[in-house]
Structures are given as C-alpha cells and as structure tokens.
Amino acid sequence: MKPAPFDYRRPATLAEAVAALAGEPNAKVLAGGQSLVPLLSMRLAAPAMLVDINGIPGLDAIEVVTDDGVGGVRVGALARHAAVLASPEVRRVQPLVSLALANVAHATIRNRGTTVGSIVHADAAAEMPVVLSLLAGSLDVEGPGGRRTIPASELYLGPLESSVGHDEIAVSAYFPALAPGAGVAFEEIARRHGDYALVGAAALVDGDSVRVGYLSVSDVPTVVDLSGVADDDLGEAALAQLDPAADIHASAAYRAQLVRVLTGRVVRSARAFAEEGT
Ligand SMILES: Cc1cc2nc3c(=O)[nH]c(=O)nc-3n(C[C@H](O)[C@H](O)[C@H](O)COP(=O)(O)OP(=O)(O)OC[C@H]3O[C@@H](n4cnc5c(N)ncnc54)[C@H](O)[C@@H]3O)c2cc1C
To answer: What span, in angstroms and rounded, lies between the C-alpha atoms of 203 and 76?
Structure first.
C-alpha cells in the first residue's frame, strides 16, 4: 500500500520545526522513519503533515555529561542507533545502553533509526524505552512553551503513547551513568536475532537494590523492584508484579515462563558485572 497524501516540511532550525508542528495539529515528526514510514505505508497512520527534522544541525550529538552531580550520557534526537551502539563513551559511562542496543533490529535499521525516536515511539516491545525507565533517565522536549524535561517515570501513558505533546519535539535523551560498584545486564528471547523480543529483561543491581525492567510483557515498559528477594524466588516475585499478555507471537503462559527464566539470568549477570566490573 501507499501512504495517504501528506504535506512535507524539512525545516532548517528547531524553531521552524516547532512552528510547523504548532500550525498543524495532525502533524508528525519524522526522524529515522523506521517505525513511522511502515505505519504510513500500511495506512495505520495518516498525518496531514510530516515535519522532517533531519535537516536540523546539531541534533546528532552524543555527549558525556559530568556537571550534573550524577554524570551520564545525553543522546541527541538524530543520533542513529548505530552511532550510539558504536560509541565507546556510551559503553564506558552506561553499558546497559550498549548491551540493549545490540538487540535493536538489524544493522540496516540501526543505521537510520534513532534512539530518541524509539523512546518517543513508546513501543512496549522496544529495548530503549525500558532501558530509559530502568535507569530513571529523562527526555528533553521543545515546544511552543519552551523546553521541558520529562522523567522516564512520567513518559509512558499507554500502548504507543507517550507524554510528549503533539506540538513538541524530543531533542535528547539522558541516561544516568552506572554508579561505581553497580552492575547491569540485558537478555531477550526473539525468534530471530533482530526481531522484536517475545520477552526481554534488563537488570540494574546496586548494592542491595535489585531492579528489573521488562519489554514485551505489558502495554508499557515496566520496572519491578526485586530488592531483598532470594535468588530462587526472583522469577515468581517478578511475576507477582506483572501480568504477561497473550498475542499472536506467544501465549501468556509462555511469556510468564520467559519472565521466570530471564529474571534469574539477568540478575545473576548483573551481580557478576558488579563484582567483576565488566
Ligand atoms: C523490521 C524492523 C524491525 C525493528 N526491530 C526493532 C527492535 O527489535 N527493537 C526496537 O526497539 N525497534 C525496532 N524497530 C524500530 C526502530 O528501532 C526504529 O528506528 C525506532 O522505533 C523509531 O526510530 P525512528 O528514528 O526510525 O523514528 P520514526 O519512525 O521517524 O518515528 C517514530 C515515531 O516517533 C516520533 N518521533 C521520532 N522522533 C521524534 C522526535 N525527536 N520528537 C518527537 N517525536 C518523534 C514520530 O513522530 C513517530 O510517531 C524495527 C523497525 C523495523 C522496520
């Protein structure tokens, strides 16, 4: 199928892009197009206008932040998955971003798709929304009222629904650094490497704190606190806080079994990471 007709703008500045969005309530931002273009082609989305942000300079930066007391990495809206995955700075400062990105789609899609676009798209089967949620990161957005920061805890409202306004452009995502002595791990089960996961899990262990985030389990990225849970009980404790759903890809019972298995695995791996530092 072909997309329904739409108007197309390619602004040269962020201010022009914000003005274009403000002038058309049914406009959509176009970043890498790896999720939006298939939706247009299948006519699951029919925006009146696309505001292509690829001509705006300066949005592709990947920066290490050291002056905010915590430290972290800031990923610009036009930084492609492939560039973020290849960044040694990202791997050093917050290795969970790199571990998870290696599971995002295939190389051709990572060459074009953006990490920030994935976070805004709010697919509960995607890796980066879960990583941002587990790390308690944030998203900076710019709209007619200026710039604001949305904490990950306030970002995901429902399936494919984020709290980024229709007239706002996400300019960067912030991933806090891994604390000294903490550990992370990521695992997912997919039919083929690069496919969306049937279930995925990311763990963050920091001292006694054990938290695990899940993709493809609920309608939104979901993080559970497993601090103080005995190793043998991790899977069941996680399931007590989750309600895995069935779809055409997997039954609810199979997803629950994947949660049991992956939870123990990622927590053990994150503990090993914390002990060995890698
Ligand atoms: C075959 C295939 C397999 C894939 N597998 C995976 C996978 O395993 N895991 C995974 O996570 N993803 C996967 N993806 C999706 C891929 O990661 C996309 O790149 C990503 O979801 C969206 O990024 P994008 O830059 O392409 O955004 P686009 O497609 O351009 O936009 C997606 C949505 O986000 C909005 N948006 C994008 N950027 C901004 C912004 N800066 N400000 C405001 N709104 C914005 C758009 O308006 C649109 O609604 C797959 C895609 C394909 C085609």
So the answer is: 24
